[in-house]
Specification:
The chain is about 25% helix and about 25% strand. It has about 325 residues and is of the alpha/beta class. The protein is globular, with a radius of gyration of 19 Å.
Length: about 325
């Protein structure tokens, strides 16, 4: 079968013929229909997140069909030990022995993928696979970020990429006011935010017209943390949603004072999937996607790096 494999940091992925994998009893063999591209894939390729045992097939937002014809979605968190204190407490996202799809386990930029049954979520078959794929990371991680904002009414979202497209729809559905912050002069993203129901859209150098109850930072840019704190009310929370972020610069204690909180999000739990995916169907969430064939995965990654599309890039097989 074909697979787009990471070989070494700083190199493009390599299209390679590899043996078709075999599934054990606790696994599923999926024929991949689609796999969305994520900024984490860029962090992996750039060495900002380590791949310990290359070569490795990347891709961790997998939609595929098993041998019985059922459709499943597979996220970033691909395996946990089930016995550590975190797993026992339902916090398997913090499992120290965890393995991650497309990093420690071969992922979905391939014709087929073997996945742990525990981390394969049932998906409807009446929707296009490419529309569902971004829900498996942008959606799930974004939903976990949103859950950490409590009952915030005025919600700021910094970085209007794939996750923001999804979570804006959830927040509007929950009757929250969304204040969208984009790269400076990115009027296209600002227009998209308004189209999705944002109350206000501007660039990250601006202050919102009203103080925020909470903010989510999806962009991997540490300098946004003090900006978000400055826009947030006393008692508010700033949630950092990325697996990697550039260094946070020093800032005056005054920005953190008055019981403001900075919180990071790591991975996801199965409960997140069980809560979010039915909600996504109920709303329903519409994802904006740009599709590429497997052979053009490197082009999709380069387009993501340079912001050449809005929404999500999805590899369709």
């Amino acid at each position: 079968m074909r697979a787009m494999q990471f070989i070494s940091t700083g190199e493009p992925l390599h299209l390679t013929e590899v043996p078709t994998p075999t599934a054990a009893e606790d696994q599923l063999l999926l024929t991949v229909e689609a796999c969305a591209v994520c900024r984490t894939d860029l962090h992996l390729m750039d060495g900002e997140v380590e791949i310990k045992d290359p070569p490795r097939t990347l891709g961790h937002q997998i939609v595929g069909i098993d041998e019985r014809g059922d459709r499943f979605g597979v996220p970033w968190l691909g395996w946990t030990c089930g016995t550590c204190s975190f797993c026992v407490a339902g916090k398997e996202n913090l499992c120290p022995n965890a393995k991650f799809t497309g990093c420690d386990i071969d992922g979905g930029f391939a014709d087929e993928a073997v996945v742990d049954r525990r981390y394969a979520f049932p998906l409807p078959k009446d929707q296009p696979a490419e529309q569902l794929a971004p829900l498996l990371c942008a959606g799930l991680i974004g939903f976990r970020c949103l859950s950490f904002t409590g009952e915030a009414t005025n919600l700021g979202i910094y970085g209007f990429g794939a996750a923001a497209h999804v979570i804006t729809q959830v927040a509007v559905h929950q009757q929250r006011s969304v204040f969208a912050f984009t790269r400076p002069k990115d009027t296209e993203a600002q227009a998209k935010a308004s189209e999705l129901g944002a109350t206000w859209a501007g660039d990250s150098e601006q202050q919102p017209p009203e103080p925020l109850d909470a903010a989510i930072i999806f962009a991997p840019v540490g300098e946004l943390v003090p900006k978000a704190l400055a826009a947030t009310k006393p008692g508010g929370t700033v949630v950092c949603g990325g697996i990697h972020m550039s260094d946070i610069p020093s800032f005056p204690y005054e920005l953190l004072w008055h019981e403001r909180t900075i919180k990071s999000v790591a991975n996801l739990t199965r409960t997140d999937g069980e809560e979010f995916l039915p909600l996504a169907a109920e709303i329903p969430i519409r994802t904006e996607v740009t599709t590429y064939p497997l052979e053009q995965t490197n082009q999709a990654l380069d387009d993501l790096r340079h912001g050449r599309f809005t929404g999500s890039a999805v590899i369709v097989l």
